[in-house]
Amino acid sequence: MRHKIALILAAALLLALITAGCAASSGDPEITGLIVAIEDRRVLVVAGLDEVSTNFEDWEGNRAIYFTVTDKTVIQGSGGKGSFDDLAVGQKVEAWADGAIAESFPEQAAAEKILILK
Predict the structure, then answer these.
(1) Which CATH number describes the domain made up of 29-116?
(2) What's the pTM?
């Protein structure tokens, strides 16, 4: 009987650890950078830029991710909860991916959370 209880507790602990690992926004953001472009429901964030540039050569060596904003995406600004309309080219943001990130350039992912820094 004790063996069954220990096995059940171990399985519950393992499930809790796996579930906690799936909460991406509790960790570090995928990227911190400037919003360089907004089109449809997508936001292009490029790291390492001091000013907005749409020239791919200016991004060389920097990470760039196109995030698709969905109804599940959490957008936050200094005033609390925001919306897609609060996002603007030139803003500095932190962004978390919801699920896998396509390895292209720029990379592509669904946005779990976007935090507007300034």
Answers:
(1) 2.40.50.140
(2) 0.75
